[in-house]
Amino acid sequence: MKIKISADLLDGLVLALLERKDYYGYALTQDMQAVIEISESTMYPVLRRLQKNNYLTTYDQPFQGRNRRYYRIAPAGTQHLEQIRKMWVNYKVSLDNILLGEAKGKHYG
Where does the signal sequence lie (predicted)? Predict the structure, then answer.
């Protein structure tokens, strides 16, 4: 069984990796695949959307006679990542309350 990941969470995961270092697309996809199931055909539209929203920037760097496009988190991306982290904490607490029975004094159902 696979749990579907929302676009917001996927954006947060990408931005969190880019916060650590710049990546070219294939390497970023590989590191994401170590944690979640994601294909390159899914990753590149995410990167384009983040770039369109000014959350990341790109630059090209030569590698073995070709150019690699690298992605770097932008200041707006860092701010957006912080918002996603706050939403994640609230969401996780809410889910834990239900899934793990951590709600105190609350009755469900």
Answer: none
**CB neighbours of 77 closer than 8 A, spacing ≥ 6?**
15, 18, 50, 54, 55, 56
Which amino acid, one-letter code, is at 11?
Answer: D
The CATH code for residues 7-99 is: 1.10.10.10
8 Å CB contact between 73 and 55: yes
Rounded CA Rg of the chain: 17
**Predicted structure pTM score:** 0.84
Q: 79 phi and psi, to 5 degrees?
A: -65, -45
Please check the confidence at residue 108 and state whether its pLDDT lies above 70.
no
Number of H helices, E strands in the chain: 4, 3
